[in-house]
Structures are given as C-alpha cells and as structure tokens.
Amino acid sequence: MKKVELSIPDMQSAHCQTRVNSAVRGIAGITIEKIESGKLFINYEDDNEKKEVIETIEKAGYKVADNITQDSSCATGCCGN
Fold this sequence. Notes:
The protein is built from two helices and four strands. It is an alpha+beta fold. This is Heavy-metal-associated domain-containing protein.
C-alpha cells in the first residue's frame, strides 16, 4: 500500500473539500485517508490510480502542486518509507 499527500493550494473552503472528495471517492482502488484545507491524503496500490486522482482533481478545477509520496510495505502505513 502506498500513501501520498497531495497539495491542493486552492482547496481551502469546506465547499472545495467536498467537491474534491466527491470527485475522488468514485475512483476504484483509492482510499481517502484524510482531507483538510489544501491537502488530500490517499492510499493507493498502483501508480496509475494516483495519476487518475491527480487528473480528476484537475478536471474539477484545482491545481495539484508538488506532492509527497510515502510508500509503505505494511498495511497501516506506520513503517514510513
């Protein structure tokens, strides 16, 4: 399981967070761990799923800035990189 923190600077309000959440939650293989002002934390298995999330967010009208990826070999993600 891989984890990624996506930076979405323009996603500040609750309305914007709901819009992004609604767009992303329909993607198979993606688990939304947390969403907060300017950030989306997801779990995924395949890099194509991550790419699809970024494309979906951009289609919803938001720019995805540089992201921080944390790969983990354990199910809980506690093992870090």
